[in-house]
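Page 47, continued from p. 46.
Same chain as before, 226 aa.
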Amino acid sequence: MSTLEVAAGAIRRDETVEIVLLLAFAGGYIDAYTWIIHGVMANAQTANLIFLWVYATAGNWAKALHFVPPILAFAVGIVIAAWLRRAAGERASAISTLIEILLLIAIGILHNRLPNMAGTLGISVVAAMQTAIFTKVKGAVCSTVMITGNMRQAIENIFVVAAGDAPVGTLRLSGIFFALCAVFGFGAAVGAFATKSIPNLALGVPVVALLVVLLRCERSHREVPQ
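Result:
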């Protein structure tokens, strides 16, 4: 299916605009939190890999190795998510969200007792599970943990509309992708503010967002497209 098309038929509950916007907010928030607290990115493994090799080529192995654990933790989260999809089917989104909530609560409670990297590892697992489980909005591929692909699709859709051969719903889909980018940025801004203002309670904000996602996922798994 083309990324410019909206899937026909019933839309999964975890592919609705409300869900992906909440997840995008949480994604931006968590990345800001881990960057401020731990100096690494939870979601953007591209950035972690770049920093790893920049410091490695400069011979600063201590700083380079600082970026290895979150990359490995992200890989573990992807494996867990893949297993969940195989074992739980349509319930995978709800189960994954519950695991993410529990991990964030545990990290938040133990924030002052855990070594810095331990918290980062847990949050990277959370980010990986989110990116692997929640992959679509209204049937179109999207990301709730980074904006690069969303921005590309938003601009492509605008071009298709301007060219005059856009499928029905393309302009609305472009708006959804732009909204994802904006909400991700808003989440990062709120995350930066909260992390600096209330570091010991900062992870409570994405937990609330994920609780709403969980409640929505636990309702009917299908809805009629609007």
